[in-house]
Amino acid sequence: AFNNMGLAYKITGDLEAAIQNYIEAIRLKKDFAEPHNNLGVVYQEKGELSAAISSFERAIALIPDYGEALVNMGVALQSIGELHRSILFFEKALADKKQAQKTKDSTKGFLLKSLFALGEKERLLKELNNLLSSGGKDAMIGSFCSRAKSNYGFQVKNPFCEYPLNYVVKTTLSKSYDFEKLFRKPALSIFQGSEVSKKYQSLLINAEQTSGNILAGGSYFSDEARGAIHQEIENYRKQFESSGEGLITSWPDKYEINGWLVRYKNGGSVSPHIHEAGWLSGSIYINVPKSNGLNDGNLFVSLDEREYEPTENANFGKVIDVQTGVLCLFPASLHHCTIPFNSSEDRIVLAFDVIPN
Q1: Given this chain, do its domains 1-99 and 164-356 carry the same CATH topology?
Q2: For residue 244, pLDDT beyond 70
Q3: 164 pLDDT higher than 90
Q4: Angle, nearest 10°, between helix axes 33-46 and 2-12?
Q5: What percent helix, strand, coil does the chain show, rounded to 5?
Q6: Residue 172 above 70 pLDDT?
Q7: Rg (alpha carbons) of the chain, rounded to whole number
Q8: CATH number of the 1-99 domain
Q9: What is the CB neighbour count within 10 angstroms for residue 291?
Q10: 32: which of 23, 108, 234, 293 is 20 to 30 A away, CA to CA?
Q11: Coil, helix or strand at residue 207
Q12: Digit-coded pLDDT (tens) for 65-86
């Protein structure tokens, strides 16, 4: 019961309550591996990586082939730069023949991330080829196809999205919905309250991010707001239904939407990244200060992890001009970042991912 309560509190963003429930679950049954793993996930979200790694170690000590804990351990080691060690844990997780194919593909994606960071070109291309041969088709695979082509000249058809920059869509929500009621007021109220914990995010500069899923049912945004997001996602799918891209032809039958808020202060930005678990990514612009310079505070999407450069983006990225009330949708395989801005006014974004179930 306490483990399940911890999971519920984590979803709502109350990380301290989640921690207390996981600790109680462990106190009542010390050989119960799952709350050790779940506790590690929460510590990782708080940026307490040493505590996270210790929790994953305890979970693995109880169940040595605990796949989820092995992958979480690998990801935690990745985040502190211990890439060679992370590979060992990903390999051990992949050795489990009972692992579902979807889980196996995502684990291989994390393995590719470590190999790419280490510059191990030959093994990276070998593992990527193996993934493609097995029919792998998700945002992580799509991203590495783009990066391998950009960095190593690796020519292969991208099974997820061959031309992802052509699938970036900008919509003005404030033309079709009561934006103030559905999105702006609830978002601002979250930052004014103290119920939602902040998530550690190393990619952010002078900014903060909420934890949990603020778009979960019964949370901070209404059913009407969630319905509007679902409608825009369906409009996106229909717009490109004849494209032939895997992004559309393999569109998930069932999915959930995971959302969070980011508030940027003066000079704030986020480094280029992708959302590994996503299929489609989105950003709703709750508040965008008036621009004081070229592309200040705009969204930059790109084929690889290169930073935005004002004069060198044409071949691998594009700038999306955003304003308050705008929604941007794009394949989750695209790297994206926020260009730094200068303003005394906060820049607030509701970001979300479509995550296949």
Answers
A1: no
A2: yes
A3: yes
A4: 20
A5: 45, 20, 35
A6: yes
A7: 20
A8: 1.25.40.10
A9: 17
A10: 108
A11: strand
A12: 999 999 999 999 999 999 999 9
Closest CA to 259 of 308, 320, 214: 214
Domain ranges of the chain: 1-99, 164-356
Token representation of residue 239: 């717009």
Beta bridge partners of 257: 354
Residue 275 has pLDDT above 70, yes or no: yes
pTM score, whole prediction: 0.89
Strand partners, 329: 169, 282
Identity of residue 8 = A
The CATH T-level fold of domain 164-356 is: Jelly Rolls (2.60.120)
| Alpha-carbon span 145 to 122, nearest angstrom | 14
Number of Cβ within a 10 Å radius of residue 292: 10
Q: Residue 271: what are its φ and ψ, rounded to 5°?
A: -75, 160
Residue 88 and residue 248: Cα distance in Å, rounded?
A: 34
Q: Are strands 347-356 and 317-320 parallel, antiparallel or unpaired?
A: unpaired
Closest CA to 335 of 282, 272, 280, 283: 272
